[in-house]
Design a protein that fits this description.
Length: about 190
Amino acid sequence: MNFLEERITKDGIVKPGNVLKVDSFLNHQMDISLLNEIGREFHRRFAHKHVTKVLTIEASGIAIAYPVANEFGVPMVFAKKSKSINIEGDVYVAEVVSFTHKNKNQVIVSKKFLDADDHVLIIDDFLANGCALQGLISIAESAGATVEGLGIAVEKGFQIGGRVIRNLGYQLESLAIVESMDAATGTIHFREQ
Ligand code: 5GP
């Protein structure tokens, strides 16, 4: 088991509805040394890529993307969830269905912060059905930027997102892939990587 799988085994909580709670160390209370280790690990896995920006989605993607951007020495940009139907101004827009909240959000990135010269590494905390990642890919494409790869802290391998994104031909790196989990017993099994 790697460092993140060990931590999920120790502190992750399986909830009904295929939700894994990691809020004691990853997305509510945050273990900064763990986040820094995640940053170093993604930097190692994408060291051969030319990255000019790290792109994520608020809120919980930000904490993961920050140490990654720090390792690469590049800015981090996060897509903002926007409630307004009529989006004003110079922004790229994508529609994202939230896995956890079951609602639709338009997410936006200002055109000032992403353009055709950018080489983007997309980062998020979880991958379930792939909607958040597809929204971020679509924003990068709208900017004419190159997607260099995608990094995920926790992929739920029993949901379709990982397969969809890999089938699109991208390098997708997930630090932990949950193969199965059981809310009744609390057990979590990881895919061998
Ligand atoms: P997707 O768009 O791939 O269906 O879902 C990914 C998004 O939903 C992530 O940005 C993450 O915030 C949230 N998410 C999906 N599954 C889980 C989960 O099991 N636990 C937590 N904490 N968040 C999740």
